[in-house]
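Input record, target 12 of the design panel.
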């Protein structure tokens, strides 16, 4: 009986011990699971926080900071999911995008290629996913930034083909790829292809935003620029006018957004020989610029230069001189008296003085331009030749034939060497020397 009681007691004790052990194991397992879940939640929160801060930095144009935060997010993603996870590819794409906007193309390419390798090897992403398309698009941006336009076109086309396969033709990502292709084809002087791509983007924007939206105006401006580079000023003028009309309605007549519109339209009119119209448009641009940028700003100096050129082409040389002088005064004040841009302006002013028959002032301006250029570590010989030629022209106007021939010959030597005999500038100098030599006989 005692034995039976002892046996029962022992069994009860073993059962209790077993229960205690099981309870302890369960508590330990639950604690571990809770710890892991907490760690994952913390990791997820960190990823979300890094992304939130990175996109905030992008909006503030703090691109280096954004890239650093995206990199931290990539490291966290690798830690949680493994280095070949699609999310890591996305983070590398984000890093690359931020670095592109900072102009760090080499670093951007490294991260984008890492992202692309992950994306192409991934079952979730693969070769026909939007993330892959975005990586191709950003690689296109890298090569465009490096002026390797053929490579840029190749990557943009890959991106476009994926986006069209996913979304069809009527989607903003497809429009963006077409815009990028339009830009890079313009830079490679494939003007017709550029216009075609821009027009696809334009059709989408008109359908999405309506005909009176700033995005539509931007595309009209882009198309106008292609026609301008193509030499078709009437078409350029038409598109520039459409852009101006939209922005006038959308932003109002005193908006800084109109400055580019007025300048573009002014330049198209100037090249069409409509100098009065060009001057009026440039004056509207400079009026807004002075209010926004102040009177001592290089962009204001640019407008004075544009106005001066239009007056010069019109034959109003005194007004040309006055505006060139206004541009020069601003540039000397901001850049200093020895800046290459100041040298260029002295050259333009010298040419204007010749037309007003103020030859001594012309010689003085050209000499100043020449002095600045010759003091550079590597003077541009074509620019030096232009100054010599201008001084020769001024001495010719004064009737000092020997001095004129001397400077023309200096210009000719440089032009023969760097431009060749058949270049129109070289031929002009040869002709001038010939005429003067006949006079001196």
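The sequence produced for target 12 reads:
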């Amino acid at each position: 009986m005692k034995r039976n009681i002892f046996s029962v007691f022992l069994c009860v004790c073993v059962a209790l011990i077993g229960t205690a052990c099981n309870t302890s194991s369960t508590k330990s397992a639950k604690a571990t699971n809770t710890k892991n879940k907490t760690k994952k939640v913390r990791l997820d929160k960190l990823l979300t926080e890094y992304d939130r801060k990175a996109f905030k930095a992008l909006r503030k144009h703090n691109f280096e900071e954004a890239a650093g935060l995206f990199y931290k997010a990539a490291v966290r993603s690798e830690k949680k999911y493994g280095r070949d996870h699609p999310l890591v590819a996305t983070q590398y794409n984000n890093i690359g995008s931020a670095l592109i906007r900072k102009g760090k193309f080499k670093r951007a390419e490294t991260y984008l290629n890492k992202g692309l390798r992950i994306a192409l090897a991934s079952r979730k992403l693969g070769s026909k996913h939007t993330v892959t398309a975005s990586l191709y698009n950003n690689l296109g941006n890298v090569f465009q930034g490096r002026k390797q336009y053929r490579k840029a076109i190749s990557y943009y086309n890959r991106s476009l083909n994926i986006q069209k396969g996913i979304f069809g033709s009527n989607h903003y990502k497809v429009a963006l790829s077409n815009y990028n292709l339009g830009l890079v084809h313009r830079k490679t002087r494939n003007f017709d292809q550029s216009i075609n791509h821009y027009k696809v983007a334009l059709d989408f924007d008109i359908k999405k935003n309506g005909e009176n939206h700033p995005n539509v105006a931007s595309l009209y401006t882009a198309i106008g620029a292609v026609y301008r580079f193509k030499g078709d000023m009437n078409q350029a003028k038409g598109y520039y006018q459409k852009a101006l009309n939209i922005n006038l309605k959308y932003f109002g007549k005193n908006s800084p957004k109109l400055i580019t519109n007025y300048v573009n339209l002014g330049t198209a009119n100037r090249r069409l020989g409509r100098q009065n119209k060009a001057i009026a448009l440039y004056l509207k641009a400079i009026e807004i610029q002075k209010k926004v940028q102040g009177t001592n700003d290089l962009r204001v100096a640019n407008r004075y230069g544009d106005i001066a050129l239009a007056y010069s082409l019109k034959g109003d040389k005194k007004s040309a001189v006055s505006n060139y002088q206004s541009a020069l005064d601003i540039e000397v004040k901001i850049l200093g008296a020895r800046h290459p841009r100041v040298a260029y302006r002295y050259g333009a002013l010298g040419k204007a003085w010749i037309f007003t028959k103020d030859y001594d002032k012309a010689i003085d301006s050209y000499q100043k331009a020449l002095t600045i250029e010759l003091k550079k570590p590597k003077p541009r010989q074509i620019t030096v030749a232009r100054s010599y030629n201008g001084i020769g022209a001024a001495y010719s106007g004064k009737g000092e034939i020997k001095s004129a021939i001397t400077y023309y010959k200096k210009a000719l030597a440089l032009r023969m060497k760097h431009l060749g005999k058949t270049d129109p500038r070289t031929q002009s100098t040869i002709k001038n020397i010939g005429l003067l030599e006949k006079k001196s006989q």
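Residues 2-59 form the longest helix (58 residues).
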